[in-house]
Amino acid sequence: xxxxxxxxxxxxxxxxxxxxxxxxxxxxxxxxxxxxxxxxxxxxxxxxxxxxxxxxxxxxxxxxxxxxxxxxxxxxxxxxxxxxxxxxxxxxxxxxxxxxxxxxxxxxxxxxxxxxxxxxxxxxxxxxxxxxxxxxxxxxxxxxxxxxxxxxxxxxxxxxxxxxxxxxxxxxxxxxxxxxxxxxxxxxxxxxxxxxxxxxxxxxxxxxxxxxxxxxxxxxxxxxxxxxxxxxxxxxxxxxxxxxxxxxxxxxxxxxxxxxxxxxxxxxxxxxxxxxxxxxxxxxxxxxxxxxxx
Length: 294
Known about the structure:
- The chain is an alpha+beta fold.
- It is about 25% helix and about 25% strand.
- It has a single domain (about 5-250), classed as Nucleotidyltransferase, domain 5, CATH 3.30.420.
- The strands form four sheets. Strands 3-2-1-6-11-10 form a six-stranded mixed sheet. It has a three-stranded antiparallel sheet with strand order 8-7-9. A three-stranded antiparallel sheet has the order 12-13-14, with no helix packed on it.
- This is Rhamnulokinase.
- Its EC number is 2.7.1.5.
């Protein structure tokens, strides 16, 4: 029998878990086992609503160490989280400012301001992403307006799954599925949109070009000194859920309990004609991902 043991780190806004997936190639069977489950939640710090990323990192490492202590050979590790939130780093890889959560009020009114200044249709046709007041586009604008003293110290902006992968490997990556939640990725170029970045106040040098899932970011060294590949999975949790679903054949529609509706086929091409036809009063025509409520 040929087995592959893959560890999945799945982080949500209220909890996280480290799962062991064992894939048996001959039988094409997959078994899942929960290794470690832990709480996540919002914190109040210096007037902001934040995430305790140090606690989350410790919980991730604890789960990984538990697998290693069982003597299981891990073939790969992948991390997914929620979207839009990020961690800022300086040139030495140390955090700058606070890891502010999407539920913080700092973005109040900024979505309407962006639509007025850039045009609602223009923003959508560039990004193809539904308008949500906590998208990274507005978070960065809030940051650069409200905390300009941080800007000279910022060298990198990593989205949550990329940050935890960096903490395990020392290597930086900007994975595509989570990057698109920022409302800053251009749907035509698959790269950061310079016009949207300019409005946000962020420097394009803070970001590397988004990479598609499947590449090895780096390696984590377990207590037994084994180097384990950390793979850039579809790191937005909804994207991972869709990829794990049997979307073969005809058109499918998936409805998730957190009211995300995904309509379309799991294909590399994007539905550009739909973004061109989209009317501001009819967000359900988007053809990518529509968030009704989180």
